[in-house]
Every structure is written in structure tokens, then in C-alpha cells.
């Protein structure tokens, strides 16, 4: 039965909105007659009655599909309710009503009603009569044959009674005692299918990368004498694919009454489906009656590919070992709860690919259209039977395994089945996966367990534990690692783990936790977004898919093109080394461009970027796993630039990653720019230095700087009549230092007024010089004496260095923004610098708390550490100033981010005291495991001072004018 013209045109228009770049769902599914809408962006209005909570006790209108809480009914519950003493999950019951027409010409057909996802126990009535047994289980497609209940030629009444909490304890334990939001209602589409009395009820396809094709078709009714045929066509142009016998069809005459019929053949000249070349075809299965009339056609997209698992070896896709770069993902939308849309699935899949990922896992079967997107984009999928930490019993479990696999079995993206999570499995169900996936028999795992020759250990440490991967002999693929709660984890230290694990040939990849913050709109709280404190702000993107810093860090560290360390010097000849980390693609199919950027300073103008030169980089034609040399012709005037920017593109022209390298390090840059002085640097009267018992004053015609004569601390800065509230420093961070007033001194030199502050401990001296045109230089020598100059009974520096440098005070409320040159635009941690690039950046002040400020979620966050500062202008309506780095590798700490109010414990390492700091080292961010279990680039620093060391230099220049 086909859709009506009106229905088809409505769905076609809806889905055409997402059919871009060849990425689309299989909709509009012409065999379906939708009673609901198709997603959160396409709903229909039904009648609804709720027993408890919001809007309960009366019939009202509701949009379908959508979880009823998001429509203003019932009560919200987060799945870790059992952690709260005395708490119980909400348990309202909802009843839906909807009327639909059943034309008279349906009379000789079978009428089936399908529900793609309903939470949780569902009783379906048609015209007041039961459609069948109550369905239990909230993440699975189910159906009823309602032929005998339909009144043809009339309006029929559909009534759906739903209990949010199941009467089956194992379903509640598996699905509703879990680390996710618990919802109720019809959250995926509802439709009718009108099929012949004798029909193809279900079919399983297996298309191998060598062209071998098999189909197992389950017939409904006695089909003896009927004929089955299969045609394969190109998806884009409809061109027929021929068998090795040059036939356009595989045909099979049904000669018995068996319910299962099989077809086999071999197609020639097929292009295999893989993660980098997701070639899809359209398979059409046609059933003809004994007279030769086609009575039913079913179509689905397929990919010719072969998935194999070999113990003590790995997972192979088309004979090539696969290393998955994966992410865990919930089906989630702010406005729909578990109700999403094909457009959202497309958006999510494209963002996942943008992070250079190739795999996804979730804790339950996803929306069908998300699997469609994975098929289209080449994202492999681990499809999981729900069971967060408790499994289904053997009464309901077998039926749910069957429902999951029947829906998803033909998706080429699915490479592994998963039975539960973290103990949430029933061993008795394991054998059923092969029963229902009878042609491919894909591998089955128990996530976090060492099971079935595949170790899926969750949140492994850098060295993974005794006999797991370190000196272990099973295929290793952590199904959760790098926990991204708040601003933690995600991309922090990812490359350390990855490089370490890749040294073992049995490493098969892993899945980061998790894709997005799960913060639904609370209709009972004025529409706020709520992640239930620290339970669900675990995403790399926000609830509306806002990109956090980890997004770009992962993109860089999982780029299929990896550049070897590169330093631009005067000897640079345009060549550099890179490695091909694709699985199938030669770099001859990719391209790269370069740009030479000139970055001016606020001394010259506002600080602007100009492209001096750009062109193509010649990539080496290297195969996956190989390293080669890329080259470009160094343009004339290359060393007049400040930054080399590189960008690589895949064979489809999509950006893979961006890299940048300073052509001049900070000291060189500063000296070069200062040698081109603007008018504002014309010499004026000589600056003076004076000292009283209380103060040291450096004075020029435009700027006056006052220090405390007893502490050496900056007390006051005035630019003309305006006071700049930058003061109370330099104070030591990560070390101790004692000001020595008796050995400190002032003097006036030709190039400025000087105050030399001497110290014991971590600092030797800090020399301040104010020039006649009002520029204030600071030259600090740190950690050049093993004894620290004496005077300390204990160590004068931290044994483990997390922060090291100098800090000052500045009132946060005076700041309106920041413009700077350095790595940006996101803040960094010691183990999450990847993903930031050199350039000139601008951001307005914000107080974003990552994963919590949902009502004003502004990324990039303003506060925190920023890497490789060259200069930074602190913008203010009343007290702006600019600071320039004359030392390399300076981290610029600007204010201290607030901790999330909903945290269980602090989420960030301790920031330095003070408001603005200039640091030579900063801490790493924790990724679920403590820092000591992270990789080498996450570890705190250490200092060793030897006789003759020149010490560490922290040299700055301030422009307060």
C-alpha cells in the first residue's frame, strides 16, 4: 500500500530539507502511513490524559511523537533517583487517543500498526478492542496485526495506554535505573502498513565486499507458487547492477510452504562500503503472485562490506584491520527528550565526522534515521541492547533482542552487537544475536567486560592495568574512556593514550564518553535546561550542540593526517613530515593549502591579520600507516610573516584539520615589531625613578608606576589622570620568593627609569623599566640558584609543579573583553592544547560555566588559561591595557572560572591566586581517572637547578597608555 499523494508530498518536502551532500535517511518510506509525525520537527496533535503531575486529570492536546514531560505532562525523573534517600521514580500513566480513516479498498489486505518507540508498558486498543499483548521495553520497535479490528470505510479509534514504570522489574532495572533521564510516552513515530495477505514480513540481507549477496526472506502466509526477486541499483542514478551472469535480477520460485526463503548470488563491479568510502546501493525485493503480478516491493539501502572478528588480532572491515575512533551518544533533544528528527541525526552525524570520528555507540538502539546517516557517512555502529547496569530477564529479553535486530540488521554501519552495559546483561540472551543475525553473525560484546575475546574495559588508565592491554593478549577496545564531564576529559591527553595503545597490534580503538550534554527543557520549571547537576553534563557539545574546547582538541588529535613536530626557523625550506592515519585512503586523494599570516600589534593598529601569501602544499602519495614529506614552494617574503597556517581537505573537499606554526617565536616577534615603531613611540622626556621609605616611583610624561618599597609589589598604575587597577604583584606561583629591599635599587638610564627588585628563593631579580614614552618592561629571572640565595628552611619551589610564574590583581568587573595573539580561541589545559591555533583572537567577557550555564551558554569560555601568548589587550570601558610577551611559551591566566554549582567535587585543578597570571607551566585537567593515571603530557612538571644555569626568564612589556 502506497502513501496518499498528500502524505507523500508532505513527507518528501520534510525530508528534502535534509537530503544534502548525499547524506539522508531512507524516508519517506512509501510503505508507511504515518498516524503521528516523524520527529520533533514534524508532529501531529492527538488527545491525551495523564494521571499524575503536570496537567493531569483531564483530557488535553499533545504533540506526537514527543516524550510527554516535554509537552508539559507528568513529572521529570533522572535515572539515578535511587542515589537519593527516600526518592522514587515518577510513575504516571498516560492514555493517547487518535482517530484515523481506513478506506474500503484495504479490506483484502493485512493492516499492521507499528510503534517505533514507546516508554514503557504499552497496551494498544483499536475501536476499544485489544490489539494484542502489552508490550514492555521502551527502546524497541513493535507491531500488531490489527486487520480484524479495523472498521473499513469508517473512522477508527486508536487508544494507547502507557505505564511509565514497567510491571516487569527487570525492565525497570535495565532501562529506568540508569544514568540518563527517564521519560514517558510515544517518542518515536507511529504508522500503519497495508500489505497483501501473503507478503514479505521480514528480510535479512548480507552483501559482502566481494559482491557475494544473500537474502533470507520470512514470508507471511503460504507463498507456494509465488516468486521473489532482488534488484540492486546505484543509489544516485538508478543504474542496475548486474550479477556475474550479467543478469539484472536474482529470482527465486517458491516451491514450498516454508516461512523462510533464501536467495543467493554474486554481483560484479560493486564498490565496497567502508568508513572512508560509504558506497550505498538500493536493494529492491519484489514479490510476485503465481500470475506474475507484482504485489509487494520492499526497498532498503545496502552496502557491500564484510565484517570479521579474529581473536588475538582485531576487527576487520573488508579485510582491513579497523581501529575505531568512537563516541558514545544518547538520542536526545532539548525540546523532545528522546524524540529527535532526521535533521538532528544528520547534524549529529556530521559533527561526529567533523571530529574525525568513525564510530558511535549508545546504551540502546538509536533512532532509525541516525543509523541511516551512519550508513551514508561511513560511521560504524555498535548497536546495544539496553541494560545500563542491570539486565533484562529471560521472559522479556528474548523478544527485545529480536525486535532490535529485526529493525537494524540490514544497516551496513553495524559491525558489533552489544548485550547490555557494565553488568547489565543476561548471558542467556547472547546466543540469540546470531539467531536473528543469521547471515552475518556479527560479534557480541559485554561493554566494560573482558568477554568473548574482546576486552572492552571502561576508563582504562594510561597503562591500562595488568594483563589488559599492557602485556595483555586479547583484542582491546574500551567502549567508554576519556569521560568529558563539564570541561574535563574529552580531548585532554587523548593523544598520549592513543599513541600508547597503538603500539599494541591488538588495539581496536575506543569510544569517548559522551557526545552531548543531556539537559532537557523543564516544562515544570519555566523552561530551564536541566542536566540534573553533575549527572548529565558529560558532553563534548552542549545540549543544543554548542562546541566545547574538547571538540576541536579531539578533531586535531584524531585527524587522519598527523604532522610530525615542526619548528619554523630561517632554514625552513617548505618541507615537513606527516603520517597518513586513514584506514583506506591514500593522501594522493587529499589536498592541503598554506597561508602566511602577518599579525600586527596594538602598537601599530588594533592588531590585525593580513594574508601575505597562500598556495598549495604538495602531499606525498602515501598509503595508510606511512610517513612522508609534504612540500610547498616558500614564497618570497615568507619570513616577513608571523604565522604559517595549514589546512587539509579530504577527497570530497571537506576540511580535515588546521594547524599553525609561528614563523617567529615571541621574543623575535616582539623585537621585529618594535623595530617598526608607530608615532605613539616617538621619544618624549626621559622617565625618572625616585624612592621614599614607603614607595618606589617610576614616572614618565604619560604613565606613572608606583611600587611598595617594603614588599616590591606593584601598588598603583596611572595613565594620565586615569588609574589602571592592575596591581598587587608580582606574587609567586608555584614557588616562594622574599623581597630584599636592602639589595634592591633604582637608577635612571638613557633608555628609561629602572627599579631592580632583588629576591631570595625562586626569583633572583625582577627588573622594571619605564621608558620615556610610557612603556613598562618587566624582566624576571627565576630559578637560577640551587640555594635560592639562602634564607629558606624548607624548599622554595613546589616539588610537583602545576602552576609556575607570577600573578597580579585586576578587578574582573572592569573587564569587557579580550583581544590577543597566541593560541586560541579556546582556553587550554596542559593536556588539552591541541585544537587551538596561532592567530589574533577576540572574545567578549563571559562567565560561562562549561556544562551548566545553559541559559547563557557562550563558547569559547572567557576565563582560564590561554597558551603561547604574544600579546593580549584586556578590554575595558575604564581601564584597558595591553601586555606583550618577550619570552616564549607564556601561558596567560585571565580570571578564575567558577566551579559548577551542581558538582559533587571540584572539576578543575586549583588556579593561581590573583586575577591575571603569566605562567611557564599550568596543570592538566583530569579525565575521570586521577592525573597520575593519565599519560606523560598530563603529569606535573618538576624543576632541577644546577650550578651555572641561566634560569628561567619571564619577560613582559605593558602598555597602559
Textual characterization of the structure:
- By secondary structure, the protein is mainly beta.
- The chain has nine helices and 61 strands.
- The strands form 14 sheets. Strands 48, 49, 50, 51, 52, 54, 55, 57, 58 and 61 form a ten-stranded antiparallel sheet that branches.
- Strand 31 and strand 32 (454-455) form a beta hairpin.
- The protein starts with a helix and ends with a strand.
- Residues 11-22 have low confidence and may be disordered.
Radius of gyration: 33 Å
Number of strands: 61
Estimate the strand proportion.
Answer: 25-35%
What is the residue-averaged pLDDT? 95
Number of helices: 9
What is the rounded distance between the termini?
78 Å
Overall spatial form = elongated
The secondary structure category is mainly beta
Summarize the structure.
This protein is mainly β and 961 residues long. The chain is elongated.
Which features does this protein show?
961 residues; 35% strand; 7-stranded antiparallel β-sheet; mainly beta; single chain; 10-stranded antiparallel β-sheet
What is this structure's SSE topology?
Layout: H1 5-16, E1 32-34, E2 44-50, E3 60-64, E4 77-78, E5 93-102, E6 109-115, E7 118-119, E8 121-126, E9 129-130, E10 135-136, E11 142-145, E12 154-163, H2 169-175, E13 181-182, E14 185-186, E15 190-196, E16 199-207, E17 212-220, E18 227-234, E19 250-253, E20 260-266, E21 281-288, E22 294-302, E23 307-310, E24 314-317, E25 320-322, E26 324-328, H3 342-354, E27 359-361, H4 368-377, E28 380-385, H5 397-408, E29 414-419, H6 430-436, E30 443-445, E31 450-451, E32 454-455, E33 475-476, H7 494-502, E34 509-512, H8 549-557, E35 561-563, E36 575-580, E37 591-599, E38 609-617, E39 627-631, E40 643-649, E41 655-662, H9 666-674, E42 688-691, E43 695-699, E44 703-708, E45 714-719, E46 722-724, E47 727-733, E48 737-739, E49 745-749, E50 752-761, E51 763-770, E52 775-782, E53 804-809, E54 817-824, E55 837-844, E56 864-866, E57 871-875, E58 881-885, E59 891-894, E60 916-921, E61 952-959
Parallel strand pairs: 26-27, 26-34, 27-28, 28-29, 29-30, 32-33
Antiparallel strand pairs: 1-15, 2-3, 2-5, 4-13, 5-12, 6-11, 6-15, 7-14, 8-9, 8-10, 8-12, 16-17, 17-20, 18-19, 18-21, 21-22, 23-24, 24-25, 31-32, 35-36, 36-39, 37-38, 37-40, 40-41, 42-43, 43-44, 44-45, 45-46, 47-53, 48-50, 49-50, 50-51, 51-52, 52-61, 53-60, 54-55, 54-57, 56-59, 57-58, 58-61, ...
Helix pairs in contact: 3-4
